Amino acid sequence: MTTRTNETWILDLKSSGPSHDEALNELRGIIQKGLPYALSRWLSSDDPLFQPLVEEVTQETLLRVLDQLDTFEGRSLFTTWVHKIAIRIALTELRRKRWRDASLDELTENEDAPPPPGLLADPQASPEVSAERKDMLTRVRRILEEELTPKQREALVLLGLQDVPMEVAAKRMNTNRNALYKLLHDARLRLKKRLSLEDLTPQDVLTAFEPK
User: Which of 52, 57, 73, 85 is most buried (CB neighbours < 10 A)?
Assistant: First the structure.
């Protein structure tokens, strides 16, 4: 295997066709090889949660890298930059596992439906905080319904919230893994632009549901 330079990583990942797919597959392998050692301080590789976490973090890292290719400044090896992104994502996921109680398909249902229990289940929340959260939930439902295609919402449900393995999700949606990455990448860009138009950031949405 030819060693890629920083420039060839960027070029291939921005391309389409075989070069893009090959670079994405190679990067996936690099991430999955490095995560067990990097996470050993916090989670044993023998833990039943470990392998699902590695798969989840790998998927999120690849999407994040595709989103942020233009921000890579070349001060380190490209793979070192990617590895740091993967670790940040992994530690965030370990802290926020409670979010897995929330289902995106519930979020996109009728706005009058009761909210998922994982989101508004904080018995310590004040009436003001509860009202803020309900308002945010209504806005999120509306944005997801208006901005994403049914396929994009389905992909987010399967991969982002139900932890379905990439290969299984691809088969279920009658597509392949790399096409699914592209679908998610496009969905994230659309959501990011829409949130920006509404003066919201993803962190604003998450912060609204943090304990207060």
Answer: 57
- List pLDDT tens digits, range 160-181: 666 677 788 888 888 888 888 8
Encoding tokens for residue 26?
A: 């190679």
The answer to whether 39 touches 50, Cβ cutoff 8 Å, is: yes
Measured distance CA(73)–CA(77) in Å, rounded: 10
Query: What is d(CA 103, CA 110) in angstroms, rounded to the nearest whole number?
Result: 14
What does DSSP assign to residue 24? H
Q: Are 41 and 90 in contact (CB under 8 A)?
A: no
Domain count, the chain: 2
Do 195 and 105 lie in one domain? The reply is: yes
Return d(Cα 157, Cα 9) in angstroms, integer: 30
CA distance 158 to 166: 9
Domain boundary residue among 43, 73, 95? 95
CB 7 within 8 A of CB 23: no
Say yes or no: 128 and 77 in one domain: no
Question: What does pTM read for this prediction?
Answer: 0.52
Q: Which domain holds residue 129?
A: 100-207
In degrees to the nearest 10, what's the CA dihedral of 55, 101, 156, 52? 10
Q: Which residues contact 45 (CB under 8 A, 6 or more apart)?
A: 36, 39
